[in-house]
Amino acid sequence: MREADVRVYAIGLFTKARCLERMAEETGGRMITVHNLAELPAAMEKLSLEIRNQYTLGYFSTNPSNDGRYRKVKVEVHPPAGAEPVLARSRCTSPGAADTSPPALSMRERTKNLAGTVVTCGLVLLLLATIIAGGIQLVRRPRTQLTRVIIGSKDEVYYYHAATKADAGALGEALRKTGFFNDRGTTVLLSKGTAGTVVSFVLNDGGWDHPDAVYSFEEIGRRIASSVGGFPIKVRLIDSRRLLHKELVVGKAAIGTRDVIYYFGSATEASARSLGQSLRSAEFLQDLGASIVLSKDGGTAISFVVGDGVWERPEVVAAFQRLVRLAAPSVGGLPIQLRLLNEGMEPKKSLMVE
Fold first, then answer.
1. Do domains 146-247 and 256-354 have the same CATH topology?
2. Where are the domains of the chain?
3. b or e along 71-101 (b: 16 or more beta carbons within 10 Å of the residue's beta carbon)?
4. Which of 20, 91, 202, 215 would you label with 303, given CA atoms 20 to 30 Å apart?
5. d(CA 121, CA 128)
6. How far is 91 from 72, CA to CA, in rounded Å?
7. Which of 337, 335, 333, 282 is closest to 304 using CA atoms?
8. Rounded CA gap, 165 and 170, in Å?
9. CATH code for 146-247?
10. Is-contact 354 335, C-beta < 8 A?
11. 268 Cβ neighbours under 8 A, 6+ residues apart
12. If you ran DSSP here, which 8-state letter would residue 301 be given?
């Protein structure tokens, strides 16, 4: 499979299947083991998201010999704190490499050597294919059996899985209060299940690529979280065909009894608490009810809620820049985008701290 440039992604049912795990590891794929069928849709969704987010690295060798042998290539990755682990193929071959495979075995020899593997993997793959067929139906079923609640006369919230009509109605009212729903025929989807609470927004093509738009939806997620059961929630940006383009986490970490750090995007609760500890050490957080936002969407941003007009005072802005530099190691280092927000959580000043 390595030579055929195939990646194997697999789901093990109930027990870990070593043959599938080995194939996945050697080809740069991944295997997830589920212990009951209720976990299957979330596992398939996770693999689907990984498959759509990949990089291919290549290089030109200075060695002119194209003898088909493996070369050792070292690639170092320094992901930010809290990032998902990086998966990579352990081997690959160069285009046009010489065929150095051993002589072909007879059918009898292949059958003898592979009998155990065929029986073990064959049964697992057959069972996997059977269950996944049902699993795909479980994942896709909401597309044809969505139920909706109309908010006003045109806006709509579709709900499925464990979400209820009451949940959808509460979400719709919260979106109306934020101004996102204003009777223009806007569509939002609500799901509750093993993946947690997920609110999906249908965007025009490319809307998910604009940082300001992404932050706006993260802020909407913060405002509506209480209407759908509280933090954390997932905010998904999808197109009109319901294809996922970006998934964001919106969570909340209490620091002390009154201070709060919200975390957005790929930021985690652990990174939010690390930032909180750093800001407490710097004596900025003193349990007086401060609100801060930590966001990781391709880069790191720290936002502070301040009083009216504070963003216009150069000496205060400079003090926040110094504070961000002090806190930078707790969230992965510089550069960090500094944002000053008004009490409505709207950005009033933004600058890069390097």
1. yes
2. 9-143, 146-247, 256-354
3. eeeeeeeeeebbeeeeeeeeebbeeeeeeee
4. 202
5. 10
6. 9
7. 337
8. 9
9. 3.30.300
10. yes
11. 81, 82, 249, 251
12. E
129: its two tokens: 């294919």
Q: pLDDT 10s digit of each residue in the chain, 354 long?
A: 555 556 777 887 766 667 777 777 777 777 888 777 677 777 877 777 777 666 666 666 677 666 666 677 777 777 666 555 666 655 554 444 444 444 444 444 433 333 333 333 443 343 343 333 333 333 333 444 679 999 999 999 999 999 999 999 999 999 999 999 999 999 999 999 988 999 999 988 888 888 888 999 999 999 999 999 999 999 999 988 888 999 999 999 999 999 999 999 999 999 999 999 999 999 999 999 999 999 998 899 999 999 999 999 999 999 999 999 999 999 999 999 999 999 988 899 999 999
| Strands (E) located in 194-288 | 196-202, 233-238, 244-255, 259-265
What are the structure tokens assigned to 244, written together?
């996922």
Residue 337 DSSP one-character state? E
Interstrand relation of 259-265 and 291-296 (parallel, antiparallel or unpaired): parallel
Q: What is the phi-psi region of residue 179: left when phi exceeds 0, alpha when psi lies from -120 to 50, beta otherwise? A: left
Residues 6+ apart with CB under 8 A from 149: 156, 157, 159, 165, 168, 169, 172
H-type helices in the chain, by residue range?
18-27, 40-51, 107-144, 165-178, 211-224, 269-281, 314-327
CA neighbor of 296 nearest in space, from 282, 323, 275, 318: 275
Sequence-separated (6 or more) residues with CB below 8 Å from residue 101: 3
**Ramachandran assignment for 17, one of left (phi > 0), alpha (psi -120 to 50 degrees), beta (any other):** beta
Check whether domain 256-354 has CATH 1.10.1740, yes or no = no
